[in-house]
Design a protein that fits this description.
Layout: H1 8-28, H2 42-70, H3 72-79, H4 89-113, H5 115-125, H6 140-155, H7 161-179, H8 196-199, H9 223-228, H10 259-263, H11 267-272
Helix pairs in contact: 1-2, 1-7, 2-6, 4-5, 4-6, 4-7
Length: about 280
């Protein structure tokens, strides 16, 4: 069985390098100068970084490999296609990157539009001050959902493991920058690449009229949002600061604030008797 999972130990080393790089940029050129380095819940986000960047990947990799091995007789003929296996690495990279990013956009959209999936996604939207480390505040169930829904379409490509690791690192860098305290727009490339100036509106407490399920679902690329009409980038006259007044979601005041409650959410909501 050829897996699209990789050795997360090597990835974790580069995750720390990328994190240090973006953190340095934030200290040199902060967008929100009043925002502290050790802002509220920074320590909690360090735990999310460690768990989601290393341990969760290992657990899901082993569980996913076992699950697909069990189902292998039914799906093996699809993975044997190995559509890009004989192509140059750059073409494997481009094909895998585009397919993965489009699938991730679809899954992210689904997390906002499906009520029970939104309950898990609330952990990520509990961020009230955006910076690089917020990129890794997400519920462990999201890893299961993303991997479960995208595994087979990506595995069919049969790309080299080095390509998968490279794309994981690129996506981590872009994700850190999108959540960072940096004023990034990419200029004319904003219609292709996601940015912190665009992604900040995804975390807006007050969503635009007629967009109750959210905006700007892009992960690495903004392209899909512009193509499918989910992009939102207000003009300076509408938002002179080019930032939302408040981040989060309605009901955040009733959402668990501690790490255990968020880690076990939504079960923790039942224990606390919340609606």
């Amino acid at each position: 069985m050829i897996s699209i999972f990789w050795d997360t130990r090597g990835y974790f080393f580069w995750l720390l390098v990328i994190s240090a790089f973006v953190l340095t940029l934030e200290r040199l050129w902060p967008w929100r100068r009043e925002q502290w380095l050790f802002r509220r819940q920074f320590g909690q986000d360090l735990v999310w970084l460690m768990f989601n960047g290393h341990y969760c990947g290992i657990l899901v990799a082993h569980a996913g490999a076992a699950a697909f091995a069990w189902a292998w007789p039914a799906i093996s003929r699809w993975q044997e296609l190995r559509i890009l296996a004989e192509q140059p690495l750059w073409l494997q990279f481009a094909g895998f990157f585009l397919l993965k990013d489009s699938l991730d956009w679809c899954v992210h959209n689904l997390l906002h539009r499906t009520p029970w999936l939104w309950e898990f996604h609330k952990v990520h939207h509990s961020i009230e001050e955006l910076d690089w480390i917020g990129n890794f505040r997400f519920h462990w169930m999201e890893v299961v959902v993303y991997q479960g829904l995208t595994y087979l379409p990506l595995a069919v490509l049969g790309v080299d493991g080095r390509v998968i690791l490279g794309i994981a690192l690129v996506n981590t860098l872009i994700g850190h920058l999108n959540h960072s305290n940096l004023d990034i727009t990419w200029g004319p490339l904003r219609y292709v690449l996601n940015s912190s100036r665009m992604h900040v509106w995804h975390h807006d407490w007050d969503l635009p009229a007629g967009r109750p399920k959210g905006v700007n679902f892009g992960i690495a690329l903004s392209l899909w949002d512009w193509v499918f009409g989910t992009a939102w980038w207000p003009a300076p006259v509408e938002s002179p600061s080019q930032q939302p007044r408040r981040l989060g979601f309605p009901g955040l005041e009733n959402f668990p604030r501690g790490l255990p409650g968020r880690f076990l959410y939504p079960l923790s909501r039942l224990w606390r008797g919340r609606d």
